[in-house]
Amino acid sequence: MKIKPQITKPLKRTLRHILFWSLILLFFTSIFGVGNTFEMNVFYFSLFLMPVTIGATYVSIYKLLPDYLISKRYFLFGLYSIYALIILVLTAVFSIFFALAYLTNFKFEKMTVLSKSSVFIIISICLVVIVVSAFKLLKLNLKQSKNSAELEAKILEARLKLKEQELKYLKMQIHPHFLFNTLNSIYGLALKKAEQTPDMILKLSNLLDYLLYQTEKPLVAITEEIDHIKDYISLEKMRFNDTLRVTMDVKLKSEHMTTAPMLLLPFIENSFKHGSLKDGVLKIDIDIKVANEVLYFRIKNSISDHTLAQGGIGLENIKKRLDLLYPNKHELSIVTTDDNFEVYLELKTTANV
């Protein structure tokens, strides 16, 4: 089996440059040869101008453009471009004079064979430099745009991964906190050998199913979140007996709305944990309303005069989750008075399609 020789990238690049400058040489020969009779002299004359053209072009595309223009050092770019243009004109004039002298054996009467003016020749050289620089600038801009797009994509991917990790961490904090409170309630009933214990365990089982499996979903139906809130309240009623008064008003103009799982339940849990009895009763008022793809949630619980209504882990976590999941799409306000602790949440939800 024959192995095909591999052409390396540097070699390919060199061959492309040789081919390009060969075409430029032919271009110079054709335009400088108009009106002249000695084509070979015109070819040699054009060959004398190639070092100046190549040098000016490479200085422009490999130094001035990437180091100064692309990096937005405009003053230095303009200053060095003027220097480069002056050097280009001087070296071009010298090359023209030396080429004419050499090709005519210093017989100045034969120099008229090459009838093109020096100004036209210098303009032709500058034209090549400008055209090549324009293409190089376009290539650099496209490369920079591509790099910027790739960098933005990597930053966005990193932010998404960080967001996912942070959400998982917050959920891990919510789960043990919630379980700790509920298991304490079951433990208290078990000590009393209460008949409600099996029913309480069953409700806890339903909540655990929601907690362990449904919360892995990005969104759940708002009705599902409300059902588990009701289960949680039922569990707490078994623990508080006659010392608890909960009113819950739910108005859903659309039941096809979704929300992040475990978004409202920590607020409910917080009201039981940090609420206190007032006249022998813990009062909790809950209002949930969904209208025009907006969720309105309010919860108020009684506190004693000396109660510090701190949010604890659950409330702090829910604040962070709201910032992560609903940036610029929610309003959360917390009001504490001598008698009540109230939380009001308004956020834009999503239709469950």
Report what the structure shows.
Helix content is 62%, strand content 14%. It is an alpha+beta fold and 353 residues long. The chain folds into 2 domains: 9-153, no CATH class; 194-351, Histidine kinase-like ATPase, C-terminal domain (Heat Shock Protein 90, 2-Layer Sandwich). The strands form 2 sheets. Strands 2-4-5-7-6 form a 5-stranded mixed beta sheet, covered by helices on one side. A 3-stranded antiparallel beta sheet has the order 1-3-8. A hairpin with a 2-residue loop joins strand 4 and strand 5. The longest helix has 75 residues, at 118-192. It is rod-shaped, with a radius of gyration of 40 Å. The protein starts with 8 loop residues before the first helix and ends with a strand. The mean pLDDT is 80.
Summarize the structure.
This protein has 353 residues and is of the alpha+beta class. The protein has 8 helices and 8 strands.
Query: What is the CATH T-level topology of the largest domain?
Result: Heat Shock Protein 90
Strand content: 5-15%
Based on Cα principal axes, name the global outline: rod-shaped
Radius of gyration: 40 Å
Q: Could you give the order of strands across the largest sheet?
A: 2-4-5-7-6
* Structural class designation: alpha+beta
Query: What is the arithmetic mean of pLDDT?
Result: 80
Biggest sheet details: 5 strands, mixed
N-to-C order of helices and strands? HHHHHEHEEHEEHEEE
CATH superfamily of the largest domain: Histidine kinase-like ATPase, C-terminal domain
Main CATH class of the largest domain: Alpha Beta
Measured as a percent range, the helix fraction is 55-70%
Number of strands: 8
Number of helices: 8
Straight-line N-to-C gap: 59 Å
Q: Spans of 5+ residues with little confidence (pLDDT < 50)?
A: none
CATH hierarchy: architecture of the largest domain? 2-Layer Sandwich
Total domain units: 2
Organism: Subsaximicrobium wynnwilliamsii
Protein name: Histidine kinase
Transmembrane segments: 43-62, 74-99, 119-138
Domain Signal transduction histidine kinase internal region: 166-244
